[in-house]
Design goal:
7 helices, 188 residues, mainly alpha
């Protein structure tokens, strides 16, 4: 699904949470909230890849495309994820994680907008590539934030929580995507 409102919500939460100075000694509620934000950033990539899969036939009908042409959008997204992970992790070490995350979220929002307004497969391909590129920038930074702030048992617990959420996401995302597409159409 190309839910740019959901992506914008992530961006606003991240800007707010990263403005605060979060330390390992913060309250339990702050740590849980922070963990939720990082888990949301990590799972956003899986959600963007899995939520729209039930809508592929409807996308093909709407854009007058064959199913094989519509399935290329999955490849565009996955190709977009691969490249940025090679250099955004080390770039975030030098210029800061917040800048990279906001840049990535901006690309996801731009890609989502391209997909939402797509009247042709070419624009849909471009939008999916931009979404993948943005997620590829976010993913290494989100995990690195936890390593920067926590260590020992706290870090293991937080990674366990994120692994749990990440393992549930591929099963739940197509169901959510199908319900949203059924009620609001594939562009939603």
């Amino acid at each position: 699904m190309y839910n740019s409102g959901f992506t914008l919500l992530h961006a606003l939460f991240m800007m707010n949470i990263l403005r605060q100075k979060i330390r390992c000694s913060d309250s339990k509620a702050t740590v849980l909230w922070f963990c939720f934000i990082v888990a949301a950033l990590v799972t956003l990539g899986r959600m963007l890849s899995d939520m729209y899969v039930p809508s592929l036939p409807e996308i093909g009908r709407d854009l007058l495309a064959r199913s094989s042409e519509v399935k290329i959008t999955v490849s565009c997204y996955l190709f977009g994820i691969i490249l940025p992970q090679l250099f955004f992790g080390s770039l975030s070490d030098s210029i800061g994680r917040k800048k990279i995350i906001l840049f990535g979220l901006s690309l996801v929002l731009l890609g989502s907008s391209c997909c939402y307004f797509a009247k042709s497969l070419l624009l849909l391909y471009l939008g999916r590539l931009l979404q993948g590129f943005g997620i590829g920038a976010i993913t290494p930074c989100a995990r690195s934030i936890l390593i920067d702030l926590y260590s020992g048992k706290s870090l293991v617990r937080l990674f366990s929580f994120i692994a749990l959420v990440s393992s549930i996401t591929p099963a739940v995302s197509p169901i959510i995507g199908a319900m949203v597409a059924n009620h609001f159409g594939w562009r939603s």
